[in-house]
Design brief:
Layout: H1 5-16, E1 21-26, E2 29-33, H2 34-44, E3 49-50, E4 59-64, H3 68-77, E5 82-87, E6 100-106, E7 124-129, E8 139-146, E9 151-158, H4 159-170, E10 172-177, H5 179-185, H6 189-192, E11 196-199, H7 207-214, H8 233-245, H9 251-269, E12 280-281, E13 289-290, H10 292-297, H11 313-317, H12 323-334, H13 340-355, H14 357-368, H15 373-382, H16 387-406, H17 413-421, H18 426-435, H19 456-483, E14 489-493, E15 497-503, E16 515-519, E17 523-527, H20 529-561, H21 564-590, E18 596-598, E19 602-608, H22 613-616, E20 626-631, E21 637-641, H23 648-664, E22 672-676, E23 680-685, H24 698-711, E24 717-721, H25 729-747, E25 750-754, E26 770-780, E27 783-792, H26 800-806, H27 811-825, H28 853-861, H29 868-879, H30 887-903
Parallel strand pairs: 1-5, 7-10, 9-12, 10-11, 13-23, 18-22, 21-25, 21-26, 23-24, 24-25
Antiparallel strand pairs: 1-2, 2-4, 3-4, 5-6, 7-8, 8-9, 14-15, 15-17, 16-17, 19-20, 19-22, 26-27
Helix pairs in contact: 7-9, 8-9, 12-21, 13-21, 14-16, 14-21, 15-16, 15-21, 16-18, 17-21, 19-20, 26-27
The protein binds adenosine-5'-triphosphate (ATP).
GO molecular function: ATP binding; ATP-dependent DNA damage sensor activity; damaged DNA binding; mismatched DNA binding
GO biological process, one term: mismatch repair
Protein name: DNA mismatch repair protein MutS
């Protein structure tokens, strides 16, 4: 096919961006051709047309450039990347076809247009570097960064499980990885949720290959039209050094992950954005480990049903005033601490702000005026910040001295440190203040940005254009007087410039020296030489002024760009202050108390409440607080029974949430709470309760249970809700039983087990660290009343039928269920031990057994249900060799064994 030069240019550019959809700028449109056109037409509904007709028809789709953002956002949400190809040459200067090139690539993890991003959530691009021939247990290097804020972190993880959890809790949007890594992760795509995976060649992960590409670190093509500030090679080298100095086990893995991220930034933005100032390496164990299903089950940042923020723990506790604070709080929630000293630092600060409501109110009022400096810095470094952005930045900087002054000398150390660390960048602030007018326009090319007195040449031009306008007014007045045409007007349009307009009725008064330019229906337009001379002066000054203002603005933005490190440091402090004062506000509003944290193993909550459920009860309902004590050294496994809807799930979840809140440095909904810090938090919901995830398979539940058993330690907190329900009763019960024993005997973790298997309460007979609790209900006539109170001992009945009645089952069904239940409880079983619910009450009854044989075998096989003496006797018997015994020995042994059984 013979291609036009334009299509040839398109194909040349496209060849360099095969993975992306190329938005090719043609005048006021972005066009897509060939396969890209088909993709966008299918994915976002653009009309598919053809560039040429006939056999050589080239598929084409397009949109006006000003409405491109919606389409870009839709494509990014579906995991595509979009390469924006602009005209990088003024068509006037073009010799043939105008030069075009890609100025940036937008991908899910690299987006600069923050309008479509959640202001209170990060937008991370991640890279995972696996060693050669990785396995599911290999150590992996993980690095991730947010180009909108400069947040850049790295850590080392052991095995796929840890990697998947970390990607989930960091909330990464896009992941760069090797083909081998992809092969390992792909089977777990579902656990990865919305992380888009991008395989890359091995060189992508090599620091030396990066160094070779990086050159002097600045943009790769100098003639590109958009702005943007990039880091130098030395600055990039600083990241590697930070990673090496941190003491990772395998620093090369981290360096590989960092290289991939930076390579990707070069590919998508032509350099490493200067907003990426600092790398923060961390160890996953320095934080309370929360895996992805725990995070989901506990609805930390979104609800299980519908994935909404509203109704999550985050939505309840977020009282921050700024977007930066909102993101920071989210981070604290995803990464609670484990070091009691660091937690205390935060709690001291929150407590101080609780006790000083006036100070808190002033602080929050000041923070309310604070703009998102982090994302403003991101826009500065991307070269997209406009004059309003710089004005917002300056307004925020101007607030800083006042904020620092609010924190008194007696405030706790953390508050002092944060206040002292705020840098008002006074010179920069004064400089922007001197430069920009109040309320500048968003457009940078139309002038009107700078104040008088900022720049001498600009002042002259401003004068000229001002004076010129005065001249016009004076000229109009004089012409009216001279001609006697009182309705004469001097007007301006882009085609003719300035002209004199006289209505048809006054044409006979028009002086001879007026030169006619245009005739309209009701008027004539004229000019005179002196008007044109003046016009040239004004328009020339206006043009020069606009381009000078643009240049001056770029210079100012560059100066701000040189302060990014200091600005981001202040942003960091403001975010922390916002979170701390927000937590204090929460504590005071919702009546939370300060928890006590230590290295012990006790978890004791007095009158605890569920932070979310307590806010969602209907009017008139009261949340019933409950106390819980768990101690690895004593009662470490709580078996909680009770009817459906009694409140079992609520209680076990509230214990987990209170622990988590305490470890992030928040006050907690309780009368008091003592918490021996937890290293890992696990929460599992039985398959039947986990409908929202759409995977009610028993397999998932068992995989998750296996994960807990393989990872929990004696410092962990585990809450299990209805584990084992996804399979046949006896299998489920057997598994639940064995899991409970293992947690109790081998792991020794603090565990709460909510269950409908009343049989599990028998564990107290053999395991001394098990405590039976139940959620109390009261029977009233045929109904039950939920008391919501956790009491000692097991529940004696399930009350399922009564709950069914409450839920509105038809009376006939409730009646029949009651009868069937009576039969079951009377112990009617068939010869196989299966219940015979169909039997009519009163009919002759088969020989009955209270428990069916399957259930008996469970307890028989599960030797722990026996007294220890019984077990010893059995073991002794099994070891005997009758052939080696004399009759007397045999008789004596028999006597001893019988005596021991009778004593037992
Ligand atoms: N302490 C409490 N005070 C007031 N209301 C409560 C309390 N605990 C639970 N509730 C209410 O009871 C409802 C049911 O609680 P929950 O889901 O914890 O019951 P459950 O025993 O786990 O039920 P199931 O066994 O059917 O899963 C909650 O949605 C809440 O509205």
């Amino acid at each position: 096919m013979k291609l036009t030069p334009m299509l040839q240019q398109y194909l040349d550019v496209k060849a360099r961006y095969p993975d992306a959809i190329l938005f090719f700028r043609l005048g006021d449109f972005y066009e897509m051709f060939f396969e890209d056109a088909q993709v966008v037409s299918r994915e976002v509904g653009l009309t598919l047309t053809a560039r040429t007709k006939g056999e050589d028809a080239v598929p084409m789709a397009g949109m006006p450039y000003h409405s491109s953002q919606t389409y870009i956002t839709q494509l990014i949400e579906k995991g595509f990347s979009v390469a924006i190809c602009e005209q990088i040459q003024d068509p006037k200067d073009a010799d043939g076809i105008v030069k075009r090139d890609v100025v940036r690539v937008v991908t899910p993890g690299v987006q600069h247009d923050t309008e479509n991003l959640d202001a209170r959530a990060p937008n991370y691009l991640a890279a995972a570097y696996f060693p050669d021939q990785p396995t599911a247990d290999s150590v992996v290097g993980l690095a991730y960064l947010d180009v909108t804020t400069g947040d850049f972190r790295a850590t080392e993880l052991k095995g796929l499980g840890e990697l998947l959890s970390e990607l989930d809790r960091a909330e990464a949007k896009e992941l760069l990885l090797s083909e081998a890594g992809l092969a390992l992760l792909e089977p777990h795509a579902e656990r990865l949720g919305k992380v888009f995976m991008r395989p890359r060649d091995p060189e992508y992960f090599e620091p030396d290959a990066l160094r070779a590409r990086q050159g002097d670190g600045v943009r790769l093509a100098d003639d590109l039209s958009t702005d943007g500030y990039f880091l130098s090679a030395e600055q990039v080298e600083g990241f590697f050094k930070t990673a090496r100095d941190f003491g990772f086990m395998t620093p090369t893995l981290i360096e590989g992950a960092i290289s991939a991220l930076l390579n990707y930034l070069i590919d998508t933005q032509r350099g490493v954005s200067s907003v990426i100032q600092r790398l923060s390496p961390y160890r996953a164990q320095s934080f309370l480990v929360i895996d992805e299903s725990t995070k989901a089950n506990l609805e930390l940042t979104q609800t299980l049903m519908g994935g909404k923020r509203s109704g999550s723990l985050l939505s309840i506790i977020d009282r921050t005033m700024t977007a930066m604070g909102g993101r920071r709080l989210r981070h604290w929630l995803n990464y609670p601490l484990v070091d009691p000293a660091r937690i205390s630092d935060r709690l001291d600060a929150v407590e101080f702000l609780v006790r000083n409501p006036a100070l808190r109110a002033d602080l929050r009022q000041a923070l309310d005026e604070v703009y998102d400096i982090e994302r403003l810095c991101g826009r500065v470094s991307a070269g997209t910040a406009n004059a309003r952005d710089l004005k917002s930045l300056q307004g925020t900087l101007a607030l800083i001295p006042g904020i620092t002054a609010l924190i008194p000398a007696e405030a706790p150390a953390l508050l002092q440190r944060l206040a002292d660390g705020l840098d008002p960048c006074a010179e920069l602030c004064a400089h922007i203040e001197r430069a920009l007018v109040d309320g500048p326009p968003t457009q940078l090319t139309e002038g009107g940005l700078f104040k008088m007195g900022y720049h001498p040449e600009l002042d002259e031009l401003l004068d000229l254009s001002h004076n010129g306008k005065d001249w016009m007014l004076r000229f109009e007045r004089e012409e009216r007087e001279r001609s006697g045409i009182s309705s004469l007007k001097v007007k301006f349009n882009k085609v003719f410039g300035y002209y004199i307009e006289v209505t048809r009725a006054n044409l006979d008064l028009v002086p001879d020296r007026y030169i006619r330019k245009q005739t309209l229906a009701n008027a004539e337009r004229y000019f005179v030489p002196e008007l044109k001379e003046q016009e040239e002066r004004i328009l020339g000054a206006d043009e020069r002024r606009k381009s000078l203002e643009y240049q001056l603005f770029e210079q100012l933005r560059r100066e701000v760009g040189e302060h990014l490190g200091r600005l981001l440091h202040s942003a960091d402090g403001l975010a922390d202050l916002d979170v701390l004062s927000g937590l204090a506000e929460l504590a005071q509003r919702r009546d939370y108390v300060r928890p006590t944290l230590d290295e012990g193993t006790l978890l004791k909550i007095e009158d605890g409440r569920h932070p979310v459920v307590e806010t969602t009860l209907a009017a008139g309902e009261r949340f019933v607080p409950n106390s819980v004590t768990i101690d690895s050294a004593a009662g470490r496994l709580l078996i909680i029974t009770g009817p459906n809807m009694a409140g079992k799930s609520t209680i076990i979840r509230q214990v987990a949430l209170i622990t988590l809140l305490a470890q992030m440095g928040s006050f907690v909904p309780a009368k008091s709470a003592q918490i021996g810090v937890v290293d890992k938090l696990f929460s599992r919901v039985g398959a039947s309760d986990n409908l929202a995830r759409g995977q009610s398979t028993f397999m998932v539940e068992m995989t998750e249970t296996a994960h807990i058993l393989n990872n929990a330690t004696d410092r962990s907190l585990i809450i299990l809700d209805e584990i084992g329900r996804g399979t046949a009763t006896f299998d489920g019960l057997s598994i639940a039983w064995a899991v409970a024993e293992h947690l109790h005997d081998v792991i020794g973790a603090r565990t709460m087990f909510a269950t409908h298997y009343h049989e599990l309460t028998e564990l107290t007979r053999t395991l001394d660290g098990v405590i039976n609790l139940s959620v109390a209900v009261k029977e009233w006539q045929e109904d039950i009343i939920f008391l919501r109170k956790l009491v000692e001992g097991q529940a004696n009945r399930s009350y399922g039928v009564q709950v069914g009645r409450l839920a509105g089952l038809p009376p006939a069904v409730v009646e029949r269920a009651t009868r069937v239940l009576e039969n079951l409880e009377a112990g009617q079983f068939d010869e196989m031990g299966l219940p015979t619910p169909g039997r009519t009450p009163g009919a002759p009854v088969e020989p009955t057994r209270r428990h069916n044989p399957n259930q008996l075998t469970l307890f028989a096989a599960a030797t722990p249900a026996m007294a220890p003496e019984e077990r010893e006797v059995l073991e002794h018997l099994a070891e005997l060799n009758p052939d080696a015994l004399t009759p007397i020995e045999a008789l004596n042994t028999l006597h001893t064994l019988i005596a021991r059984l009778r004593d037992a």
